[in-house]
């Protein structure tokens, strides 16, 4: 049976890095508080966990970490509401939908397809017309047929219903219902992003404003911050020893092996803004330069708010008419004629202060299936880069919600942060054991 380890209190995480080698080292600082899912899916009782199995918790080379409610102590989606209402300049039109209206529409769409119940279903078995009639007669809310998914209210056309990427193959077959449910949820997420764009909520923000908000307003979990700081400090110490020629003869016989042994950090998130994430990580690492060093661009994988030049028609259309006209007049006086051909309205994120958010989000990760795809690619790319077999490197994944379940199971060491009841229920349905660990008093 697959086993995950849960830290209800994140303060215990740092002990994974502070322990000395030996089978009982972790158990001298951590206590097995409880075990969930000790009954397998087929009803047979699984054996009690070997308490010494916790020694495998410290056996990882690299960390891939979720962001919202794993590193942070809250879901930062509400940050976008604050940014839209309080940070962006008032020369743009007010949003056509409030954030609460967008959230309610999102919840209504989730209710339409009963995502919460989909783990009990097989997507390949579509209900017959007679079954649907019986459901309606009995007062049950019928599940939305995938063939009628376009019945979801949508504020744009073709962009929303792009095909789902090829579904990932989970590490254990019992996760297939979870994969199916995440695939269905992806459609709702795309519809919600379209509403955000059409409403104009995320138009008119500077990258620096978003990063500063992440640095000053996003609250982090102290225990996770301590853990990540200790992890990168460990790796910096290895670098110093390597530069001085103090190499461990058992682990660093070759330069390639030394490079492979240096632990690295990735963040894998369904958040919409990399600037917000980087701002929050400035709190962890101290400043922007340190964040770039410990979290290079290739190690931050998430969807991302896009930016355009200020004079682009998308932004001009969002501005209040009087100010927009004034701006056009100034532009002509200064001799800045529009360039031939359309401007790129989806420029990549940059620190150039003349770029302003146009409200669109470049989709990269929306659901757990996207995250599982990305995590598998991280592992493959790392193995190819260092000429290693996939099994030569041990990966830890930290997450807090059901969106992280595929990655938690995929990792060599799956670590749950917090006390999500929905994730625990998903684990039990999938036959995944969860062991709660707390610090010994």
Terminal Cα span: 30 Å
Average pLDDT level? 77
Strand order of the largest sheet: 2-10-1-9-8-3-4-5
Give the class from helix and strand content and strand pairing. alpha/beta
Query: What's the helix count?
Result: 15
The percentage helix is 25-40%
Largest sheet features = 8 strands, mixed
H-E string: EHEEHHHHHHHEHHEEHHEHEHEHE
β content, as a range? 5-15%
Give the beta-strand count.
Answer: 10
Radius of gyration, in Å, reads 24 Å
What oligomeric state is this?
A: single chain
Contiguous low-pLDDT stretches (5 residues minimum) are 40-49, 115-162, 251-260, 322-348
Shape: globular
Give a brief description.
The protein is an alpha/beta fold.
Task: Characterize the structure shown.
This protein has 441 residues and is α/β, with parallel strands linked by helices. Strand 8, helix 14 and strand 9 form a beta-alpha-beta unit. Helix 3 runs antiparallel to helix 5, helix 6 packs across helix 9 and helix 9 crosses helix 10. It starts with a strand and ends with a strand.
